[in-house]
Specification:
Blueprint (H helix, E strand, L loop, with lengths): L4 H27 L21 H6 L5 E4 L2 E9 L2 E3 L6 E4 L2 E9 L4 E5 L5 E4 L5 E7 L6 E6 L12 E7 L9
Length: about 170
């Protein structure tokens, strides 16, 4: 049985494509440092989220400093707002590492900050914990926060803001 040269060519290209797909998946998993969000954020009572220690310490519009260049913010997701975030932006300084603690009081929500890799589900009774590094900015910059999980008839209106403030303008008490 003789195999035509075009069949050999297409067979070789198909094998090369399969190897390339496997290579990109391997690189994305191992080489790029992609990791899953940890599930060690703990649990809270959904009907009384704000009574947890994390919310008592970190739920305010300005990020709370927890170390050198490290900050924390607790965000409550509810139909159809983020507290803080919707009525008043969450303020964080540039060149900082910010840990967001997010929980829901009612239904499953999403928490995604445009322009960053922050993207997590917010489940009632669970504390989502995600850390992001904000770089250097020449002027205050607003990044949008959106809900990417359908949470009810006002879902499309559920949005907030993270304001990154240059270091010379940062004052945690403002």
């Amino acid at each position: 049985m003789e195999i035509h040269n075009y069949e050999k060519l297409w067979f070789g290209l198909s094998l090369l494509l399969i190897v390339a797909f496997i290579g990109t998946i391997t690189y994305g998993t191992v080489g790029a440092g992609v990791e899953m969000i940890s599930d060690d954020g703990g649990t809270v009572q959904p009907e009384n989220v704000t009574s947890s220690e994390v919310f008592e310490n970190y739920q305010q519009p300005n990020a709370t400093q927890t170390g050198d260049g490290e900050y924390a913010v607790a965000v409550q997701a509810l139909q159809f707002a983020y507290l803080p975030g919707t009525g008043q932006p969450i303020r964080v300084p540039e060149n900082s590492e910010v840990t967001f603690y997010i929980s829901s009081t009612d239904v499953t929500h999403g928490f995604s900050i445009a322009g960053t890799n922050v993207n997590t589900m917010v489940i009632p009774g669970q504390m989502s914990e995600i850390t992001v590094e904000f770089g250097e900015y020449e002027e205050p910059t607003d990044l949008g926060v959106i809900c990417h999980e359908f949470c009810g008839p006002g879902h499309e209106e559920m949005a907030g803001t993270v304001r990154i403030v240059p270091e010379e303008q940062w004052g945690g008490d403002q």
